[in-house]
């Protein structure tokens, strides 16, 4: 029903407007009597065979919602009823920021893709933490952390450390985001020496806590092999728990959308089906070269249950959806979990 009826209607409206409206619909809808129970029945799959023990956490199933959908932790309890095994909030920054100018979110229907240049628009880490303290569901929540646009890279560590401290008590794991293409110069923090220093300092902060939290790094799909090798080396040196592979890409090769449309859209990160194969290749390379103790969350171009299975077969321990969730609807989560059970 979603693809045949709802999606054609929704896709007639500006994508960011629909994103905002979906928040209201979910929040209002799940306040109705029996809505949560019905939602769990419609979209959830309860089966012990789906459980995954990763990062010392027990995930009820391996399908998560990627960062970017619920930046401000507004819908954690509602999204928990849609069958996901975990949710990643953010990216959050120390101070609230509006993000880049609109329009900044675009659909490419013929490619089953999105382009976004949101720019870490969020209400600030303290607002997200306050909401998470009030959540009622026990779903696993990851905190995706970044730096403010106005913070120079030389002072970026301060922003990441602040976000880590504020979220420490209310999230189950952390993801360090240095790979978004939509904050100026952010990706320079993926360079070998800045990244080593950033992760080492965060791990030192982490290890000083009463109980350390799993710390992961989210990487860009636009890294070359030498850069991937540097990431692998740093991940081992800094005792990372995992890598999220991958973020959006700045590559526009082989898209079906015409060049004038792409030129009119301009800069931004591409997600969805065009990213599928390359993200899987990166996952496979990482799994071949990382020690087993460093786990992988696969994300990028998962539009079908078979795409998710491909990521898992390549070496991902868990997978995340974003664009596939937009194009396929919440039933995709259930379909993936059912295919896993058949495998």
UniProtKB/TrEMBL annotation:
Q: Identify the HAMAP family for this entry.
A: DHO_dh_type2 (MF_00225)
Question: What is the scientific name of the source organism?
Answer: Adhaeribacter aerolatus
**Required cofactor(s):** FMN
Self-association and partners: Monomer.
Q: How is the cofactor bound?
A: Binds 1 FMN per subunit.
> Which cellular compartments is it found in?
Cell membrane; Membrane
Membrane topology of the entry:
Peripheral membrane protein
List the protein's name.
Dihydroorotate dehydrogenase (quinone)
């Amino acid at each position: 029903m979603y693809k045949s009826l709802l999606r054609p209607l929704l896709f007639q409206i500006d994508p960011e407007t629909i994103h905002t409206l979906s928040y209201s619909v979910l929040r209002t809808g799940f306040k109705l009597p029996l809505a949560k129970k019905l939602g769990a029945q419609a979209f959830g799959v309860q089966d012990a065979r789906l459980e995954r023990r990763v990062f010392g956490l027990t995930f009820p199933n391996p399908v998560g919602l990627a960062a970017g959908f619920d930046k401000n932790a507004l819908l954690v309890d509602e999204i928990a009823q849609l069958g996901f095994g975990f949710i990643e909030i953010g990216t959050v920054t120390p101070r609230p920021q509006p993000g880049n100018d609109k329009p900044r979110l675009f659909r490419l229907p013929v490619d089953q893709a999105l382009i976004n240049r949101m720019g870490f628009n969020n209400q600030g880490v303290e607002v997200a933490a306050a909401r998470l303290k009030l959540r009622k569901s026990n779903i696993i929540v990851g905190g995706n952390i970044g730096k403010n646009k106005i913070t120079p890279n030389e002072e970026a560590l301060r922003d990441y450390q602040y976000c880590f401290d504020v979220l420490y008590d209310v999230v189950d794991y952390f993801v360090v985001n240095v790979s978004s293409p939509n904050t100026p110069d952010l990706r320079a923090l993926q360079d070998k020496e800045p990244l080593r220093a950033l992760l080492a300092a965060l791990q030192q902060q982490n290890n000083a806590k009463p109980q350390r939290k799993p710390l992961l790094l989210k990487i860009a799909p636009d890294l070359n092999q030498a850069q991937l090798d540097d990431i692998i080396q740093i991940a081992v040196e800094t005792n990372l728990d995992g890598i999220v592979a991958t973020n959006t890409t700045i590559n526009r090769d082989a898209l079906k959308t015409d060049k004038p449309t792409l030129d009119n859209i301009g800069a931004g990160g591409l997600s969805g089906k065009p990213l599928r194969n390359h993200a899987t290749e990166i996952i496979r390379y990482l799994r071949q070269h990382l020690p087993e103790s460093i786990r992988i969350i696969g994300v990028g171009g998962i539009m079908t249950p078979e795409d998710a299975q491909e990521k898992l077969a390549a070496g991902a321990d868990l997978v995340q959806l974003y664009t596939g969730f937009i194009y396929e609807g919440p039933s995709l989560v259930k379909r993936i979990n059912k295919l896993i059970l058949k495998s």
